[in-house]
Amino acid sequence: MKSTGTIFMQDFKSPAELITDEEMNALMTAIRNRYGLDFTNYEKTSLKRGVTRLMMKHNMESSLDLWSRVLKDYDFFMSSIDDLLVNLTELFRNPDVWIKLRDEILDQFKGQSLNIWHAGCSTGEEVYTMSIVLDEKNLLSRARLDASDLSSKALAKAKSGQYSLDIIKQYLNPFLKFFPNKQIEDYFMFTEKYAEIKPRYKQSINFSRHNLVHDSVSGKYDIVFCRNVMIYFDDQLKLKVLNLLHQCLKPNGYLIIGYYDIMPDSGKSLFKVDDIKTRIYRKKELETK
Known about the structure:
The chain is an alpha/beta fold. It folds into 2 domains: 6-84, no CATH class; 95-160 and 197-283, 3-Layer(aba) Sandwich (Rossmann fold). It is built from 11 helices and 10 strands. The strands form 2 sheets. A 7-stranded mixed beta sheet has the order 6-2-1-7-8-10-9. It has a 3-stranded antiparallel beta sheet with strand order 3-5-4. It starts with 5 loop residues before the first helix and ends in a 6-residue tail after the last strand.
């Protein structure tokens, strides 16, 4: 028979009961004031799941426990961002996207330099996929890939390029859909515990910490990936981010969003559909009055 206390509470309290909407809104306001990171316009249901996940992970019985820990311990808060925002990424995720890039889009850039930004790169699988695809098209040497994320922990893993063998095994299916006649060993160095992307596919990548909601962007890009990031935003915040992405894209540049992302109606004045199946859009030029 289980004893009462934290374990009992976690087994019988629903996620909605661990923190109320009012408590969550107050906590997000306090985080914004304390650290300058604004989650107040993030999609409420997803954010609440993240807060609940964080509380249960650390056996917290009430929002007061979380409040005290988050606001007093900077390192704890920074390490908690991964729990607040689940990272959705994998090697060759949604192979149709990469096939479309390889067979149609990248041919436009032969003989040219190519600037690509992966906004919200998480643990790096997506940007390494892009590096591999560029190498297949003989474009890697002329490409610059910027990859950014809010989470320092995710960025550290991305920079290492190291993934557990169990994770790599999960990536085999999408990899083989793109490369039916190749082996993943062609691109990774394997040890007994992990696989590491080969140095060739790291050399053109610049990783940096970036807050999509608050930070500006100085570069101009041919292609921007922002996949499965906007699912956390309400429509107001989506439009703010879409304006930023529009500004940093070159004329007719490509925006690639995630299969779970929904382009809001307000974003349709900024981007036109290139291929709805793969969620690929092109930049629209705004009419000057």
